[in-house]
Amino acid sequence: MSEMSKGWIEQSFMDVLDIQGGSQPPKSKFVFEEKEGYVRFLQIRDFGAKPHLTFIPISKSNKLCVEDDILIARYGASIGRICTGMNGAYNVAMAKVIIPDNVYKKYVYYLLKSHIFQSVILGIERSAQDGFNKDDLKKIMLPFPPTIDEQHQIVERLEQLLVKLSAANARLDKIPALLNRFRQSVLLAACSGRLTADWRNGKELPNWKENTLSDVCANIVDCPHSTPKWTQDGKLCVRTTNFKAGHLDLSEKRYVSEETFNCRIMRLKPQSGDILYSREGGILGIACIIPENVELCLGQRMMLMRVDENSNSRYVMFVLNSPLILDIVNQKIAGSASPHINVGDIKKFPVPTPPLPEQEEIVHRVDALFTIADSIEARYNSARQNLARAERAVYAKAFRGELAI
User: Fold this and answer.
1) H-only helix segments in 217-311
2) Could you list the residue range(s) of the whole structural domain that residue 96 is in?
3) Which residue, 114, 155, 130, 147, is CA-closest to 6?
């Protein structure tokens, strides 16, 4: 750490604090809905996005949490997570922090949430399910001011600053949804003719046609129905995880042998300008374009489309990513445990089709508007990083003694 204020000292976690955990009850006692005479049983999986709540019978041996107990996740992907507010729950997955009377609980809470503790606890070498133990905690040095009054002052000032950072983050949280709505409204205007209404005015052009995807494509092929045999290097084989709406993200690449590659391009060899479309799984309903100078074959859960001479592939891609098609996709997969779209249904997707010159103008205008959105998104990401750095700096100042009032 940087030099601390006068009177501060660094002490081992275990010299000042301690931890306590419960014993694992038998699974035969578990129930999965709250009922009288049972208490919540904390497990690591309860702290994910979708907790799987478990309850066990109350017994005299249960040492239940109180509201302001500070808990540290002990193992797994959640290791090091700090939480409070588990009043009345029985704890095994989280290590309860035992805090002496001369140390302010809130000071410990923020100290453990800071990079000072987190960077060390997350860096412990362990297998996937191994957690930390008291010997690990002995190696973690924590800064303490000389008096509990100063701890109170630091927490008060820290919370004032964190409230401001939280408000800034809350404002930033709104931006991704706004950008998504903007992009979707642009695509909806693009495939309805509103985006180029002024451009079309006064021009003698054929009317738009109500085509289907199969009408505007020279080729539509499904991927091979087999799992690729991956190799360390060789020929590029894309997965749906590479798909982003509008572009192919090749920052992470997977490879197959030349023999496997040749087998997987037998139906149609992909070429630049072709459309890739995800039709199954968690990444579903996304269309992107194969870029220039990229040779690839298809992985699983995707389709390859090549438009005819009267169609612009980027225009067709924009239609596939628009609310016009996304609404159809959502209706098709509603309630499905294994979401997917049949090839036959995809071929019937409606593609409102203006004459080729207007398609090209639409592509030009969508690209220009998306460039603006991308610029805002880049500034948003930069602001996010700046706020993260500011929060880290606030914690660093707090635990060097530079925030005392």
Assistant:
1) 258-264
2) 9-146
3) 147
